[in-house]
Amino acid sequence: MWQSERQNSQLIYSLQKSANSVMQTLPTPTTSKAPSNQLSTDTTIHRRQTRPVKVGNVTIGGGYPVAVQSMINEDTLDIDGSVAGIRRLHEIGCEIVRVTVPSLGHAKALAEIKQKLIETYQLVPLVADVHHNGMKIALEVAKHVDKVRINPGLYVFEKPKTERTEYAQEEFDDIGEKIRETLEPLVVSLRDQGKAMRIGVNHGSLAERMLFTYGDTPEGMVESALEFIRICESLDFRNLVISMKASRVPVMLAAYRLMAQRMDKLGMDYPLHLGVTEAGDGEYGRIKSTAGIGTLLAEGIGDTIRVSLTEAPEKEIPVCYSILQALGLRKTMVEYVACPSCGRTLFNLEEVLHEVREATKHLTGLDIAVMGCIVNGPGEMADADYGYVGKQPGYISLYRGREEIKKVPEFQGVEELINLIKTDGRWVDP
């Protein structure tokens, strides 16, 4: 699921060709209540039922395909640079793009960015990251974006005290009331405009009173989110998406699981935005993100995802799609099945897989198997649409599903595979 630099480039090329039609061609995944803890042989992922939350022309939750997000790293005051960054991401399949707005000037710049996108490209669903409790910033940017993300841990009203060991309930509640008074104008603005909010809790930035009351724990993260959810609900605003990010995968998993459990018990059906924050870079960053995001998605938890890599934002999108593809939640590229090679392999498996990938990487929705021999090949690739299997030295067999179609010389194998796909009307020119 993680890719080398070359493979990432290949995936990006493939996604560029298919991104504009992805939403029209994808099936809506099956949804149901979250599965029980009993062992099941059901291979279908039954997603937790959530309310649909619109973010521009993309819907998060409600049984819609898991949406892919990323964030530009350009300064929002750089209008041209930001527009270019947003466009690059959207063109390769990023469906929702986040920008940072640390000042009122940055918030006002979003108006120009949005207008320039309309004039030179198209509308792209935008999310603004509002830092701290800058309500003037939030109210301004809410006019120009489709969703505002806030971090409950940055709404700070505590008075510094030395050697504090706990918060009295009265003081705890008093701070909660101040948060409500501060948050209300933004909630009302988003409610009246029909826009959305992400309540984005981070393990590394819990408010002091949550830390003293619940500890540096998933419980503290969940309680922090629930406090803000209840404020929104009291103002009749429910266009909410919730995230519980952490840089440690076990903490992230526990927080999301607990959040889903608590919401289910409370009758809340808000969609969840998944991510391992500060995952790092390279292979390990991809593995770490996959371990967290993929595990929860396999459990039916999660409605939108962002892979956070210390790399160019464009590198995140192939990883997102690879995770979703591997789980069968979205199909936006060819699924390649290949054996690891052994002493029975009758050709250079790595080289042939590369040739097959190069020839077919622009296609979508197909499963293609490349197997080294006939001992296990036909059985292990039974679910593939097409198979390329070593038959005897110098010859390979081509399969359509379980059916052997023809034996051809190895040097003609890739060409004949393409001809077979063309015969079935499933080929498109790159």
Q: Explain this structure to me?
A:
There is one protein chain. The chain is built from 14 helices and 15 strands. The chain is of the alpha/beta class and 430 residues long. Strands 3-4-5-6-7-8-9-10 form an eight-stranded parallel β-barrel, surrounded by eight helices. β12 (367-371), α13 and β13 (386-392) form a beta-alpha-beta unit. The longest helix has 25 residues, at 169-193. The model is unreliable at 1-34 (pLDDT under 50).
Tally of helical segments: 14
Percent helix, as a range, is 40-55%
**SSE order in H/E notation?**
HHEEEHEHEHEHEHHEHEHEHEHEHEEEH
Oligomeric composition of the shown chains:
single chain
Number of E-type strands: 15
Supply the helix-strand structural class.
alpha/beta
Radius of gyration equals 24 Å
Averaged pLDDT, please? 87
Low-confidence stretches: 1-34
Task: State the shape.
Answer: elongated
Task: Give the CA-CA distance, first to last residue.
Answer: 23 Å
What profile does the largest beta sheet have? 8 strands, parallel, barrel
Query: Taking strands numbered 1, 2, ... along the chain, how are they ordered across the largest sheet?
Result: 3-4-5-6-7-8-9-10
Strand composition percent: 15-25%
Helix-strand blueprint:
Layout: H1 5-18, H2 22-25, E1 53-55, E2 58-60, E3 67-71, H3 79-91, E4 96-101, H4 104-120, E5 126-130, H5 135-141, E6 147-150, H6 169-193, E7 196-202, H7 208-214, H8 218-234, E8 240-245, H9 249-266, E9 272-274, H10 282-298, E10 304-305, H11 316-326, E11 335-338, H12 349-360, E12 367-371, H13 377-380, E13 386-392, E14 395-400, E15 403-409, H14 413-423
Parallel strand pairs: 3-4, 3-10, 4-5, 5-6, 6-7, 7-8, 8-9, 9-10, 11-12, 12-13
Antiparallel strand pairs: 1-2, 13-14, 14-15
